[in-house]
Amino acid sequence: MGSHYGDAEIKIFEAGADAVKAVFDGEDIEAKKRLLFYLDRVMDPFYGQDISGMTGSLKDILQNLIITSDNDDITGEAVHLLSSYTSGPYEILKADYTRVPEPFKADVLYLFNDERGSEQGLSL
Which tens digits make up the pLDDT trace of 12-51? Predict the structure, then answer.
């Protein structure tokens, strides 16, 4: 995406889920991209960041972002974060699947299929 995060994104994340949601509910596309770039780091288990207290909120925020964003870069990054760092269920996406932008419907369906496989104990 080419965006870099900085102290502002770290502070937003540290302020909690409401602050993160406020950025994604706003109009600043570049701020959203920077925050998504930072989330890619903090959600990645490789970096050892304990986000257990925010995991559920982040999953909901990202699902809502997918069905409300009109920017393909932002939608794509939100799908990437969900598929890379979370597991189902994805109730918000299921309830509003018709609002998922067409280019991302296959990826979202994959999330649902992966979720079913996990529930059955299958490794995909």
Answer: 999 999 999 999 999 999 999 999 999 999 999 999 999 9
Count Cβ atoms below 10 Å from residue 46 Cβ, excluding itself: 6
Cα separation, 99 vs 21, in Å, equals 19
99/76 Cα distance (integer angstroms) = 14
CA distances from 74 to 1, 4, 13, 40 (A): 9, 14, 17, 12
Q: What is the pLDDT of residues 69-121, one digit of tens each?
A: 999 999 999 999 999 999 999 999 999 999 999 999 999 999 998 765 554 43
At residue 20's C-alpha, the angle toward residues 40 and 7, to 5°, is 70
SS3 content of the chain, % helix, strand, coil (to 5): 75, 0, 25
Closest to 81 in 3D by CA, of 33, 48, 120, 123:
33
